[in-house]
Amino acid sequence: MIPILYRISSLTMALLFVACSANAHTPRETYVSLFVSESAVTGHWDVAVQDLQIGLKLDPATLEALPASDQEQRIEALAIDTITRLDIKVNQQPLVFRVTDLETVTLNVADYARVHFVAGLTGTAPSEIKVDLRSLFSVDTNLFGILRVNHPGGSEMASFSFGSRERSFVLNSSSTRAGGRSMFTRLYLMAAILVMTMLLAGRAVRKLKPRPDQ
């Protein structure tokens, strides 16, 4: 158990609140947000606390008999395991994520766990990302939600479910586009300078050439 997770005492209250509704359950929408930079991919996963509770796969009697603190520890472990098994590749290289924090937030008039995570990047600037969210469905195969990918060139968004859990995006870096524009500008200026130089040289030659009447 990592120390940062002991700060989320509000999760205990959320568990007590949803325990009575564990028998009849339809998963809520879940959200995965990724932020791609040249050095790392950071992100967070928003998932309903009740969905994580159901993901423990305990019968209702056993679940209700567990102390809230035990439920909290089991849910934290499930969230960490789910995130660390994410299958995400940048430039064909698989990423290894670690959880950096876990907090509770209110979304869709419900208690959600927000799991923060990060993976470092090495090598060339990211140009493509492939996302396979299969690990999320170990919690509940009926999960569905929204994937957002933010990168220097803009942002992408797609829905996902168990049957459509793989997504790929081309990352058009704004810095790359700016670099291309600046290179074009430099070439244009060099060509203009060359043309001007040739014109001036031609004029100088004409001035130096003696006239026939001289």
Keywords:
single chain, 214 residues, alpha+beta, 6-stranded mixed sheet, 10 strands, elongated
Outline the fold blueprint.
Layout: H1 10-18, E1 30-36, E2 40-48, H2 49-55, H3 60-65, H4 68-84, E3 87-90, E4 93-94, E5 98-107, E6 110-120, E7 128-132, E8 144-151, E9 154-161, E10 166-170, H5 174-208
Parallel strand pairs: 1-8
Antiparallel strand pairs: 1-2, 2-6, 3-4, 3-7, 5-6, 7-10, 8-9
Tell the overall outline.
Answer: elongated
Main sheet overview: 6 strands, mixed
Radius of gyration, CA atoms, in whole angstroms: 28 Å
Question: How many structural domains in the coordinates?
Answer: 2
Integer average pLDDT: 82
Helix segment count?
5
Which percent bin holds the helix content? 25-40%
Low-confidence stretches: 1-6, 16-22, 175-185
Strand share of the residues?
A: 25-35%
The string of secondary-structure elements, in order, is: HEEHHHEEEEEEEEH
How far is it from the N-terminal to the C-terminal residue, by CA? 99 Å
Task: Give me the secondary-structure category.
Answer: alpha+beta
Describe the strand arrangement of the main beta sheet, using strand numbers: 5-6-2-1-8-9
Number of strands: 10
